[in-house]
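Re-run with default settings, no changes from the original entry. Doing this only to confirm the output is reproducible before filing.
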Amino acid sequence: MLSVRIIYVHSRLQEISYIIHNNRILKTFEELGVREDILRAITELGYVNPMPIQEKVIPHLLNGDNDIIGLAQTGTGKTAAFGLPVLQRIDVATEKPQALIIAPTRELCLQIAGDLADYSKYIDDLRVLPVYGGSSIESQIKMLRRGVHIVVATPGRLLDLIKRNTVNMEMVRTVILDEADEMLNMGFVDDINEILTYVPDDRKMLLFSATMPTEIEAIAKNYMHDPEEIVVGSRNEGAENVRQIPRSETCCRLLSKHLRHYLLPHPTRNTRGG
């Protein structure tokens, strides 16, 4: 629990630094277009104001026409940035996969699926299924046949399920590639290229990566439609620049408030969808 709070405080310090450095006026999730039932859930989780990548991605995914390339490291709020609008785009009455989220590891799949479950607490009957290697493929097939709305998958297991004709891709309208550079490092590029041939052409696609090597640029060129690039930090830099926070009275008040709030025992879950 302490490590979670430390990670979250670090994320909040980055956000506070960004706000002060750029004289940023805080927006709210409601102003970004997030729906009431989702707002209720994230408010209970302790979310107050959107982080920079959330402020940029959420309205774009809800209202924009272009695909998105998001260059941002882990811990900048990516999961909520794509997760909140993805949930809002789901038609619960259609019990087929409508969003596909591909991540490099079992751990990240479970984290994303868990965050989506938290965000959708007040959306009745919405089902999120994580699928990954090292667990029973038969149980995953059984869940798919019962009907799910969002699939969060590692590339190898997803491709296996596709080839067994157990994942219906015809209703997929949103595809997310999370930590694409890590999938490249783990040798999943060929799997990703093959998976993307099965999804409909009229889907919206988002690609998140800390860096943009040539192999990932090739995926963007081949499968994305006029993508808009959103950068948090510097392009092709593995970690966001963390600006030193000025020693000002305003800054000290902000730091005191957030450190006191997040380091003391607190009943809510303090992750920000990294």
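The chain has a mean pLDDT of 83. The chain has one domain: 2-263.
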